[in-house]
Amino acid sequence: MLENSIFVLLALFLLLGSAGMVGFKQTLFSAISFMMAMLALAGMFALLDNSFLFLAQIMVSVGAVVVLSLLVIVSVNVKEENLPKEPAKFRWMLFAVVLVAPLAIVIYKALTYMPHTWAKTGEGYGSLKMMGMTLFKDWVLPFEIVSVLLLAAMVGAIVIARKEPSNDA
Amino acid sequence: MMEITLQHYLVLSTILFAIGLIGVMRRKNLLLLFFATEILLNAVNIAFAAISSYYGDLTGQMFAFFIIAVAASEVAVGLGLLVLWYKRTGKIDLDAMTSMRG
Questions:
Q1: A110 is a domain residue
Q2: Under an 8 A CB cutoff, do B22 and A93 touch?
Q3: pTM (2 decimals)?
Q4: A151 touching B (Cβ < 8 Å)
Q5: Of chain B residues 10-49, which have a CB less than 8 A from chain A?
Q6: N or C end of chain B: smaller count of CB under 10 Å?
Q7: What angle separates helix A2-23 from helix A27-47, to the nearest 10 degrees?
Q8: In CATH, what number does B7-89 get?
Q9: Is B61 in contact with A53 (Cβ distance < 8 A)?
Q10: For residue range A72-120, what is the model confidence (pLDDT) as tens digits?
Q11: Beta carbons of B34 and A134 less than 8 Å apart
């Protein structure tokens, strides 16, 4: 089936990208593999019929977060010898994988008892129109709070990044 | 070949969360801390979106949308702080940030 192969491909890219993000020593390589993971995640949202989340993921995670991080990486430009020393990094990661694997198996076993059928969704489920109606009918207050949060983050980032406090009396 | 069910998405989300957790705990590069945090948040996003589709309810997608917004603002402020810290000390080593140790 086409859907299965797309899911497997996207999951592979997602896991490889995030594993590469954790594993690479150079920060720039990590950023690129992080971008790969985010694109695969956007594809995953599209596979789940969430067109709005697909667009938001592409625009925010790839367009804003990764680009901002790349800008910071390039402008900071840490020297190879100034990167933090991390001896025995991969041995720790292997240990963590061994620690986590039983947990994932337990979750899978527990979840196999759930019914396998997806809910029948009507026409236009996850479309921009339906998302907008829900967002501005039932979720207006959280939406406004998030707007205030974004405004506060923007002002905070500008204040932090300013050169010199002009009159810090 | 079997069908893709909710379990696959949830197990994928678990593995992704574990990878992010390893990144947060074991890497000392401050920039990678932000990436690993993003991975953690996005692992939860997958679970929310999958469960939202599973029940045919849009609430999970709303949560995922708000998580995306919060993650964006976190990165904006965090990277500003990182640039400031790098200008002051010339390091992005997490273990070197001990100035607030009591």
A1: no
A2: yes
A3: 0.85
A4: no
A5: 10-12, 14-16, 18-23, 25-29, 31-32, 34-36, 38-39, 42, 45-46, 49
A6: C
A7: 160
A8: 1.10.287.3510
A9: yes
A10: 888 877 776 666 666 677 787 788 778 878 887 888 788 777 777 777 6
A11: no
Task: Domain of residue A3: give its range.
Answer: 1-78+90-101
- For residue A110, give Cα distances in angstroms to A49, A104, B6, B7, B8: 26, 10, 12, 9, 12
Q: Name the 3-class secondary structure at A88.
A: coil
Q: Write down the ipTM of this complex.
A: 0.88
Test mutation, A8, A14, A123, chain B, max B CBs within 10 A: A14
**A72 with A139, same domain?**
no
- B44, amino acid identity: V
Distance (Å) of CA B82 to CA A31, B69, B100: 16, 20, 16
- Tell me if chain B has a CB within 8 Å of the CB of A148: no
pLDDT in tens, B54-99: 888 888 889 999 999 999 999 988 888 888 888 888 777 777 777 7
Contact status of B100 with chain A (Cβ, < 8 Å) = no
pLDDT mean across residues, chain A? 84
